[in-house]
Write a structure and sequence with these properties.
Layout lengths: L9 H9 L4 E6 L16 E8 L2 H4 L8 H27 L4 E4 L16 H7 L4 E2 L5 E2 L7 E8 L19 H5 L22 H12 L10 H4 L2 H10 L1
Antiparallel strand pairs: 1-2, 2-6, 3-6, 4-5
The protein binds iron/sulfur cluster (2 copies).
Length: 237
């Protein structure tokens, strides 16, 4: 259920439209893997959406992040968190259980991960695939997006889930990574993150070189060189 094929409750379609969210869908999570609600229950579904970052800014971080990118990253995350809270409230008002997943929150600093991967909801909603740089790649915006997720028990028409990658033989992101953190492996559904990304090499490099931007949480070099992002930039010119 992405922008062009959106289906589901008309109120939700309109709700997304009113907020200018053009790439979104629903994911069937069905295996109880989500963070629990207040009573310890998981959620069977998630609404997943992607908000584009400025392509002009993204194209300029091939050699590393800058202040514009750090500010754009924060701005879009703030917008996503606001939308997530509003959607969770709206779902609750309509009688459904709901829980927003915070954007870019690293709740497990040891294993360097959050409560649940936004990317998992996004691939299961069919919004895109995981590129060789371990980020979601969408056809419309490339990987120049940030992701939002709200868990719910509202039964939604889902997916279809993304079953494969569309990176082809491209490895630009792997070659561009200054930390040597990307293995070059091609994604398949359910693939462990470790097969694509050495998260400690990535994190260590960011902290060592770019701590001044969000304490080393941002880099973006691998995303900046992705041809799907560059196509997005081309369409905006
Ligand atoms: S974010 Fe930076 S360090 Fe991490 S994989 Fe991408 S290019 Fe490498
Ligand atoms: S740069 Fe190439 S390999 Fe990397 S995510 Fe983009 S298309 Fe895939």
């Amino acid at each position: 259920m992405s922008s062009s094929t959106a289906s589901g409750p008309s109120w939700l379609i309109q709700w997304m439209q009113e907020r200018g969210i053009v790439l979104w869908g629903a994911a069937n999570l069905g295996d109880g893997c989500t963070p629990p609600d207040d009573q310890g229950r998981g959620f069977p579904f998630a609404v997943s959406w992607a908000v584009p970052l400025s392509p002009r800014i993204m194209a300029r971080i091939r050699n590393g992040p800058n202040r514009d990118y750090a500010d754009e990253y924060a701005r879009v995350n703030d917008r996503i968190n606001e939308t997530s809270r509003e959607l969770a409230t709206e779902l609750a008002r309509r009688g459904y259980r709901s829980k927003p997943l915070e954007a870019s929150a690293r709740t497990d600093p040891v294993r360097i991960r959050g409560d649940f991967p936004h990317k998992t909801a996004a691939t299961r909603a069919g919004l895109g695939w995981i590129g060789r740089h371990c980020q979601l790649v969408t056809r419309r915006f490339g990987s120049w997006v940030r992701l939002g997720t709200v868990f719910t028990d509202l039964a939604l028409p889902c997916g279809p889930p993304m079953e494969r990658h569309f990176c082809g033989s491209c490895a630009r992101c792997v070659e561009a990574c200054p930390a040597g953190a990307l293995t070059g492996a091609a994604w398949y559904p359910g693939m462990p993150r470790e097969e694509i990304l050495d998260v400690y090499a990535c994190d260590g490099w960011k902290k060592e070189h770019w701590y001044r931007f969000h304490k080393g949480h941002v880099c973006g070099i691998c995303s900046s060189v992705c041809p799907y992002g560059l196509k997005f930039l081309g369409r905006t010119r």
